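REQUEST FORM: STRUCTURE PREDICTION
Request ID: SP-0412
Submitted by: Lab K.M.
Chain count: 1
Length (residues): 135
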Amino acid sequence: MNEISQEIRSGALNAVDRVEIAGLTLDLRNEELRNVDGIRIDLRNRSFGVLRHLATNAGRVVSKDELLAANWPGVTVTEDSLTQCISEIRRLLGDAGRDIIRTVPQRVPPTDQRSRSGRSITSPAMPDWMRLQTA
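STATUS: Completed
RESULT:
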């Protein structure tokens, strides 16, 4: 667990209220994103939630399922909803967006299974995971 997420999860009095990402300030207490001049940047609620979750878990890989459960609890949505949020966040982060939020393919060796005919088949690829890179 990284230092930021550890402080936030612990509820420490000195917990991080703001996270700097690519020249933008993510204000966790006021749930706002601001540019370098302090001007509020519009971000859909779900996109803000995804960014908050990635920022508070910076440095570790976060699964699609985890992001969906954290931002759409108890609601069945397609992965397209998450894809739209990630695209919006990357657009706001500008050129650094692709480097800061990375899609990481899961590196799980395929399992060898046998079909009814006895032929060897492999399991389909697992879903990608997201990681927020911090400097």
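NOTES: Helices lie at 3-10, 45-56, 64-71, 79-93, 97-100.
Reviewed by: T.R.
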